[in-house]
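Chain A, query sequence.
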Amino acid sequence: MSRIHLFEFEDQQWLPEFIRNYITDFLQFLSNKTPMYKGIVPIIEKGLKEANTNQIIDLGSGGGGGLIWLNKELRKSNPNLKILLTDYFRTFPLLSILKTSRQL
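Chain A, predicted structure.
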């Protein structure tokens, strides 16, 4: 089987910012309103424990994705959890909302 090279539209420099923001907002909404990441919680908890850390560094965060929901779930067993979001195309308005509301 040959390799298929796919890409994410929101990672392309030519994409207008308002469309990039719409895509990341929609992905964040979807991932935070559904329990789509429920199955990964025990795996992340195990990784944090084995690494002896309370910090997650998310590379390519976009709008934060499911980390708002994951943050709430992971803080139940790790109240001192710290999450660092990074991205080439940062969504500043969203990040300031998250910081103000203390969701991340």
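The chain has a mean pLDDT of 82. Helices lie at 17-33, 41-50, 67-74, 92-100.
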